[in-house]
Amino acid sequence: MSGRVRVRYRVTGVVQGVGFRPFVYVTATGLGLSGSVGNDSAGVLAEVEGEPADVEELGRRLATGAPPLAVVETVTATGLPVTGGTGFTIAASDAGPATGARTFAGPDVATCADCLRELADPADRRYRHPFISCTNCGPRFSVIRDLPYDRPATTMAGFPMCAACAAEYADPADRRFHAQPIACADCGPVLELAVPGTAPRFRDEAVTATRRLLAEGAIVAVKGLGGYHLACDARNPAAVAELRRRKRRGDKPFAVMVADLAAARSLAEISDVEAALLGGPRRPVVLLARGPGTSALAADVAPGSPDLGVLLPYTPVHVLLLERGDGAPDCLVMTSGNLGGEPICSRDDDAAARLAPLADAWLRHDRPIHVPVDDSVTRVIDGREAPVRRSRGHAPLPVALPVPVPPTLAVGAELKNTCAVGQGRYAWLSQHIGDTDDLATLEALTASARHLEHLTGVTPESLVADAHPGYRSTAWARRSAAGRPVRTVQHHHAHVASVMAEHGLDGRDPVIGFAFDGTGYGTDGAIWGGEVLVADYKGFRRAAQLGYVPLPGGDATVQRPYRMALAHLFAAGLPWAPDLAPIRACPPEERGVLAHQLSSGFGTVPTSSMGRLFDAVAALAGVRGVVDYEAQAAIELEGLARGVPADGTYAFGLTGNSPLVADAGPVIRSVVGDRRAGVPAEVVAARFHAGVADLVAELAGRIRGETGLHTVVLGGGVFGNALLLSGARRRLEGRGFTVLTPEQLPANDGGLALGQLMVGALG
Is the pLDDT of residue 266 over 70? Predict the structure, then answer.
């Protein structure tokens, strides 16, 4: 054995639940190596012995030939004394923290093509099995209780494998070799349809009966990977309207699920990048430009929205529900199983109670969901992904950090909450949690933070929260600190820092950061939202801002854009003439109260919010005076502007110095003048978008002249507006700027926790 060597390979990254141990087994035996491979809390550990060239080749393949779902971060080799031996084995997992690090838990993955072929094959023993999966697909994060990732540490622990599944699990040549969630009809979870007042139906009979219910116009709660959906026939106007009424959804758009990419193309215009997102392993909801086929959907699916949210099936249950034939619907509304703002239902008892007023039936199964995970939502702008909500398919994959951070927990924002833990060169962001405006969401935040800490092995030494003194998430951080320091971070600084971090900026050089959104607590006590910061992780300077106008009544004005229009008219010195749409929309009694508030300052707070300016212009253009959901007025204003030549632009006034102040008064006067001259609302919308994009470029140019900085960051929820983001980026790049936009995380508050983490840890 004198020519032999023995090496221990440590592999870290997303290497559990992705077929990595079987890959090592097959590769090592193919190279004639002896030894073993196993999981531990830090990743995968392989000890191999054989000829030096073969041992070295295994190390190379570990780094470059891993299974498709794996993400290899590091491969380290340590020489060991030769011990001899023959054969190669998969060792039992070791739960101990072998290196003080933790492996990366994998996200839930859509059903793969191989499993789909078996699902449709009458000769296959898993034909029509609603829980078919293998090493390359199926549940991961939503079922993992602990690491290492083995069946006893998942919610599949209660389903002992039958002899046939156990044989596949033990066969190195099988696609299900050491695939933890596998099962079949003889040993796996069971599908059940529960309809009040009738006997339950099981397995394929449950699928058939559910399809019939959907065809008849019923609303069915469907249990998926990470929680329940509420489903109905998207082509049935009565069913969609009833779902909207029961869920108290207002006009907020629903997403629809169709069987395949061809069906999606019948509804929307789809680019190659969008097609790859729709059909990829993450299977998010993708916001797509409407095509002619959307006219066949119920009008209430997405009223007033320029886009349609579309997703493809990502579980076998979805595939079976959308099979063609029997008169079953070919397009289903699939919306989260909850009321607006609440966490998604994931426990069967909770779904039975909370969804009782919403659903006519429950299609469920007995595999527990350990971690609720809502659908991810994304869109494509200028050929690049621009996430709207980062959840299923992403969580809990880490984001690599440009500089190391101490163990830290960032608790996120008030709305669209996500939390994050960070240590060293990684941050782990939670799934989408929701709006922290009720007890259930705060409890979900508690559970998500604890589970992230447990999976990652990060024990936070400090917490970071938003600087707004009234945020429930900030109060939660203080209650949960247990003696640890709590640092607060200004909202818009966190927006800028989040984009910096995801693009790998180490913070040594500041950036010109635009943070445009609806609401953020400013350092002067005002409500900010139209900010330009010269920022790094350690601090920021407010280099420019949208000029202050009075915000009367807080949330009431957010829900009634006509109020913001009146405030902007007041600030611009324009009379409240009855020919203007927002004046007509405002009841006379309310108008009198607003006039008193604005003239006296009573009950108002200054705001520089760009989001509220979009609201005001939408109201003045006659687009929307009252909203049912966040940013509805801005979304509909953008929809009008798409494809319309601006043939001009609205110019802001620029005054002051440090900060520069962008006065919206000239814009408001131009909008009023155009509307009185009969200019169509869509042209007003296009000119306004062009004017804001021009403002971004002008302010960046002036600040570059002062600072010499060339990198611009665009963040905050207003930059979820595709037309504005594209126009601003084009103008900035035309002036020679390097432009960074959110591509891994949402521009909105769903990405805020990463920025909080960086500023809180490094500032």
Answer: yes
Instruction: Quote the CA–CA distance of 327 and 249 in Å, as a whole number.
Output: 28
What is the pTM for the complete model shown?
Answer: 0.92
Q: Does domain 5-90 have CATH number 3.50.50.60?
A: no
Beta pairing, strands 285-290 & 384-389: unpaired
pLDDT value of residue 150: 87
Q: Are 217 and 365 in contact (CB under 8 A)?
A: no
* Residue 638, CA atoms < 13 Å, CB-side half-sphere: 23
Residues facing 427 on adjacent strands:
399, 422
With H, G, I as helix, E, B as strand and everything else as coil, classify residue 525: coil
Same CATH fold assignment for domains 396-503+751-762 and 511-742: yes
Out of 3.90.870.40, 3.30.200.20, 3.40.50.720, 3.30.70.3450, which CATH number does the structure's domain 191-365 have? 3.90.870.40
Q: How many C-beta atoms lie closer than 10 Å to residue 120's C-beta?
A: 13
Q: What distance in Å separates the CA atoms of residue 39 and residue 18, rounded to the nearest whole number?
A: 12
The percentage of residues in the chain with a pLDDT greater than 90, rounded to a whole number, is 84
| DSSP bridge partners of 663 | 653
Q: How far is CA 739 from CA 380, 503, 513, 660, 725, in A?
A: 17, 11, 10, 21, 11
pLDDT tens-digit profile of 380-421? 999 999 999 999 999 988 899 999 999 999 999 999 999 999
Strands 71-80 and 43-50: unpaired
Residues 155, 142: Cα–Cα separation, whole Å: 9
Looking at the DSSP bridge assignments, the partners of residue 421 are: 409, 428
What single string gives the DSSP state of each residue in 658-680? Answer: SSEEEE-HHHHHHHHHHHHTT--
Element at 269 (helix H, strand E): strand 268-269
CB-based contacts of 73, cutoff 8 Å, min separation 6: 12, 13, 104
Domain segments of the chain as ranges:
5-90, 191-365, 396-503+751-762, 511-742
What is the assigned CATH class of domain 511-742? alpha beta
In sequence order, which residues have a C-beta less than 8 Å from that of residue 693 and are 6 or more positions away? Answer: 724, 727, 728, 730, 731
